[in-house]
Specification:
The chain has about 100 residues and is of the alpha/beta class. The chain contains four helices and three strands; from the N terminus they run E-H-E-H-E-H-H. The chain is globular, with a radius of gyration of 13 Å.
């Protein structure tokens, strides 16, 4: 039995609480539809997407490397990073860890 958790990652560039809550709600509903009942939520509130050095992103990466997270769901790839090269580098780093 796979005991890895599902992570929900949310990021907003602006300090907009309503946008963050709406993003999280949409992702949670999607995760529920896929059968990922209990999820761990990682939020980077008011964080720039041009870097991966964000508090919750760093925590998420550490949990993935530790083998605790098996699935990551985000509203859009741009929530992970605005630069697709950064996303690719992040995925490569996680796959080789």
């Amino acid at each position: 039995m796979d005991t890895k958790q599902t992570a929900v990652y949310c990021r907003t560039a602006l300090a907009d609480e309503l946008a963050m809550r709406a993003q999280e709600r949409r992702i949670r509903e999607y995760a529920d539809r896929l059968g990922h009942g209990k999820v761990t939520v990682y939020r980077d509130f008011g964080q720039n997407g041009l870097t991966l050095d964000r508090p919750s992103m760093n925590a998420l990466a550490a949990e993935i490397k530790a083998g605790k997270i098996g699935t990551v769901i985000a509203a859009d790839i741009s929530r992970i990073a605005r630069n697709y090269t950064l996303v690719s580098e992040w995925l490569d780093m996680l796959n080789t860890a």
